[in-house]
C-alpha cells in the first residue's frame, strides 16, 4: 500500500481511479488505490491494487459469509495468497489453486494475492463459494486498464504448469527419456502380499493430486483402500536411486461415479496424496487440457507424448522411463482399422492415437498421460521466460491384445480417456 501526504497527489489519485472507492460498498478507505472487478458478472468481488504491484493486490468479497464456509480460488498462473485478519484457514491445493475455510462469520473477507513474475499479476479464474461458481466471466485484462505497469497476458491460463528443464522437441519413435524430461509422470504402486508392486502410471496435476485411470485403482468396480497405494514422483529408474525423487502415500481415491469396467467408460480417477509434494527440477505438474487450446496448436494433426515403464518390444517391463510420440487418430479411421473392437469402445469421451508401427503404449503404461505441447505466441513479454507448456490431453486406458496373450499389440491404435470431456469433473473434485 502506498500512502501519499500531498493533497495535490491525492486529488490526482482520485481522478485517475476509474472506480472510486466511495462508489463501492465496504471498500478500502485509504487512497490512492485503484480498484476494479475481476469478474464481469458480479460487482461484490473487488480487486484493489497500487502502481507497480510490488505488494501484489487485494481481493475483497463483500458478502455475508458464515463460519465453516469453503471458498475455492483458482488463478491463471502461480500465486501466493495471505489473509491478515485470521478469518480463514488457507489450504494450498496447487501452485494456483487454494481453498479457504472460514473460521468466523464475516461480511467482507479480504486477502492478498502475489505472483511470481514482476508486473505479471495472477488473474482470478474461478471463485467457488460452497461449491457454486461466482466468477463465470473472469476478466483477464483489467490491470491493463490502469496505469500500474502490468504486462499483457496470453489467452492461455496455467502458466505455472507444464514446463520441464529439457528441450520441447517431439519424438517420433519410442526412446529412453532423460531424468527431468517428464517431471509430471509418476509411478503408482499397490501393496500385494506385503510388498509394493508397480501397477500404473499417473500425471501430477497439482502438489496434492495425481490423475490416473480408474481401472488402475479399482477392484471389482470398487476403489481400493487408499492405504494400499503408494506414489513415487520424480523417478526415472523404476527400481534404482533417483535424485530429487519423493514418495507419498494416498489419502483419498476418487473414482468417476459412472466408471464402467467392462467397456472402460469414464476411465478416470484422482489420487489425493497424504501430504503435498515439493516441486523441483524432476517434479512439476502438467497443465490440464481444455478444448479452447485447439486454436493454439500449429498443426491440424495433434501429436502427444506418452511416457511409462510399460512392456517394451522384448515383452519385458521396462525399468527406465520410455517415451513415445504419436498422433491422435479420428474415430472413423480408428474404427476402420479394427471395427469389432473399436466400434464398441469409442463413445465420444475417448480418442485413439498411435502409428500402428510398433511404437505404442502397452501394459504397464495405463494411467499415464498423453501430453501435448502447446506454444504461446500471444505475448512478447511472456515469450521472454516461457515458450509453451505441456498439457495432459488424455489418459492411457486400453489397447488391443495380441492373439492368445494378455499383452498389447503395438501395431494397433491405443484408446485414451479424453480429458477434454472431464475438465469440469477434475476441477470439481480437486477440493
Shape: globular
Count up the helices. Answer: 5
Strand content: 25-35%
Tally the beta strands: 26
Tell me, rounded to a whole number, the average pLDDT.
Answer: 81
* Amount of helix: under 10%
Beginning-to-end CA distance, first to last residue = 32 Å
Poorly predicted spans:
1-32, 167-174, 378-386
Summarize the structure.
The chain has a six-stranded antiparallel β-barrel. Strands 12-13-14-19-18-17 form a six-stranded antiparallel beta barrel. Strands 1-2-3-8-5 form a five-stranded antiparallel beta sheet, with no helix packed on it. It is mainly beta and 431 residues long.
Protein described:
With 431 residues, the chain is mainly β. 8% of the residues lie in helices and 33% in strands. It has five helices and 26 strands. It has helices at 7-16, 331-337, 339-345, 380-383, 423-429, and strands at 34-36, 45-49, 57-61, 70-75, 79-82, 88-92, 97-102, 109-115, 124-129, 132-133, 175-176, 185-192, 195-204, 209-212, 218-219, 222-223, 229-233, 246-255, 269-273, 287-288, 303-308, 322-329, 350-353, 369-375, 388-399, 414-418. Strands 21-22-23-26-25-24 form a six-stranded antiparallel barrel. It has a six-stranded antiparallel β-barrel with strand order 12-13-14-19-18-17. Strand 12 (185-192) and strand 13 form a beta hairpin. The longest helix is centred in the first third of the chain and has 10 residues, at 7-16. Residues 1-32, 167-174 and 378-386 have low confidence and may be disordered.
Amino acid at each position: 500500500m502506498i500512502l501519499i501526504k500531498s493533497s495535490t497527489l491525492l486529488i490526482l489519485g482520485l481522478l485517475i481511479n476509474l472506480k472510486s472507492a466511495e462508489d463501492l460498498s465496504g471498500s478500502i478507505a485509504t487512497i490512492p488505490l485503484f480498484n476494479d472487478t475481476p469478474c464481469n458478472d458480479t460487482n461484490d468481488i473487488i480487486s484493489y491494487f497500487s502502481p507497480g504491484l510490488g505488494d501484489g493486490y487485494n481481493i475483497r468479497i463483500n458478502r455475508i459469509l458464515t463460519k465453516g464456509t469453503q471458498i475455492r480460488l483458482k488463478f491463471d498462473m502461480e500465486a501466493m495468497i495471505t489473509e491478515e485478519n485470521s478469518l480463514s484457514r488457507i489450504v494450498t491445493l496447487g501452485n494456483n489453486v487454494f481453498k479457504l475455510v472460514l473460521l468466523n462469520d464475516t461480511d467482507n473477507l479480504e486477502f492478498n494475492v502475489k505472483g511470481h513474475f514482476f508486473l505479471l499479476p495472477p488473474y482470478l479464474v474461478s471463485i467457488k463459494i460452497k461449491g457454486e461458481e461466482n466468477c463465470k466471466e473472469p476478466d483477464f485484462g483489467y490491470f491493463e486498464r490502469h496505469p500500474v505497469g502490468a504486462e499483457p497476458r496470453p489467452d492461455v491460463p496455467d502458466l505455472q504448469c507444464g514446463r520441464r528443464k529439457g528441450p520441447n522437441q517431439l519424438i517420433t519413435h519410442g526412446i529412453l527419456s532423460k531424468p527431468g524430461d517428464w517431471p509430471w509422470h509418476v509411478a503408482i504402486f499397490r501393496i500385494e502380499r506385503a510388498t509394493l508392486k508397480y501397477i500404473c502410471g499417473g500425471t501430477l496435476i497439482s502438489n496434492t493430486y495425481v490423475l490416473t485411470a480408474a481401472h488402475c485403482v479399482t477392484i471389482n468396480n470398487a476403489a481400493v483402500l487408499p492405504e494400499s497405494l503408494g506414489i513415487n514422483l520424480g523417478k526415472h529408474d523404476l527400481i534404482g536411486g533417483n535424485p530429487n525423487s519423493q514418495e507419498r502415500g494416498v489419502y483419498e481415491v476418487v473414482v468417476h461415479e459412472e466408471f464402467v469396467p467392462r467397456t472402460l467408460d469414464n476411465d478416470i480417477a484422482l489420487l489425493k496424496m497424504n501430504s503435498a509434494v515439493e516441486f523441483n527440477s524432476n517434479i512439476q505438474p502438467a497443465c490440464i487440457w481444455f478444448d479452447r487450446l485447439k486454436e493454439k496448436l500449429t498443426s491440424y494433426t495433434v501429436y502427444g507424448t506418452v511416457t511409462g515403464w510399460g512392456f517394451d518390444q522384448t515383452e519385458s517391463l521396462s525399468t527406465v522411463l520410455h517415451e513415445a510420440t504419436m498422433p491422435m487418430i479420428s474415430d472413423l479411421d480408428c474404427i476402420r482399422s479394427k471395427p469389432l473392437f473399436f466400434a464398441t469402445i469409442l463413445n465420444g469421451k475417448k480418442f485413439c492415437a498411435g502409428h500402428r508401427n510398433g511404437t505404442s503404449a502397452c501394459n504397464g503404461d495405463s494411467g499415464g498421460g498423453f501430453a501435448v505441447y502447446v506454444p504461446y505466441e500471444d505475448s512478447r513479454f511472456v515469450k521472454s521466460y516461457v515458450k509453451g507448456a505441456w498439457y495432459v490431453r488424455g489418459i492411457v486406458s486400453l489397447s488391443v491384445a495380441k492373439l492368445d496373450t494378455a499383452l498389447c499389440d503395438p501395431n494397433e491404435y491405443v484408446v485414451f480417456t479424453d480429458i477434454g470431456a472431464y475438465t469440469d469433473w477434475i476441477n470439481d473434485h480437486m477440493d
